[in-house]
Write a structure and sequence with these properties.
globular, Arc Repressor Mutant, subunit A
């Protein structure tokens, strides 16, 4: 495998590893090369990022390698976070978040039973946005992961505690799951004033 292709693969692995990063040992194992060869690829990538006009850089911390943004561009990232559009969630993600907020702790299967559709994508989006987190496993068959909202969730929606969530109308039964989801969504949209997009 040529070095240019390997560098591209390493770059993709660094991006995919996100905040957790990746170790040299992991790189060498995934690429089936020696750790010294992996280190050489990282050095080449570092050189590429440092000597071309790029917005990213490679950082090493405690033997973990991360792909990150350049500190000198931080003022622009702050502006991005202040831009209302950057807070938009899809309807599917918003529905999923509402269900988790009101029913936490809850498993992915339980979310899907309420929504009536697979929720892998929305759940992953919410994890990536730090709005929900894994809080352990349910003590049932298969020990599924339980999800709950995070402190960032409260900040994102301008809340100081979960008690401030808007009250949902009382529902006698759970016969119409889709109607329940609509209520969640409408309430979040109205009370928390969050834009949604398809």
């Amino acid at each position: 495998m040529e070095i240019g292709h390997l560098k591209a693969v390493v770059e993709g692995l660094l991006f995919a590893s996100g905040d957790e990063g990746i170790t040299m040992k992991q790189l060498s194992k995934i690429l089936d090369i020696t750790e010294s060869a992996a280190a050489h690829l990282i050095e080449e990538l570092k050189y590429d990022y440092e000597h071309t006009d790029r917005g990213l850089m490679i950082m090493e911390s405690h033997d973990v390698i991360h792909l990150t943004t350049k500190p000198e561009h931080s003022q622009y990232f702050k502006k991005l976070l202040e831009t209302p559009q950057s807070t938009r969630l899809s309807q599917a993600a918003l529905e999923t978040l509402a269900i988790i907020a009101y029913r936490q702790p809850i498993t992915r299967t339980e979310i899907e039973e309420i929504r009536g559709v697979k929720s892998d994508g929305p759940v992953q989006t919410l994890i990536n946005r730090y709005l929900i987190e894994d809080m352990g496993r349910k003590d049932t068959v298969g020990r599924p992961i339980l999800f709950r909202t995070t402190k960032d969730f409260l900040t994102f929606f301008g809340l100081t505690s979960l008690e401030e969530l808007p009250l949902l109308p009382d529902t006698e039964t759970d016969e119409d799951s889709s109607q329940e989801v609509d209520l969640f969504f409408e309430r979040f949209n109205e009370e928390l004033n969050v834009d949604s997009e398809d």
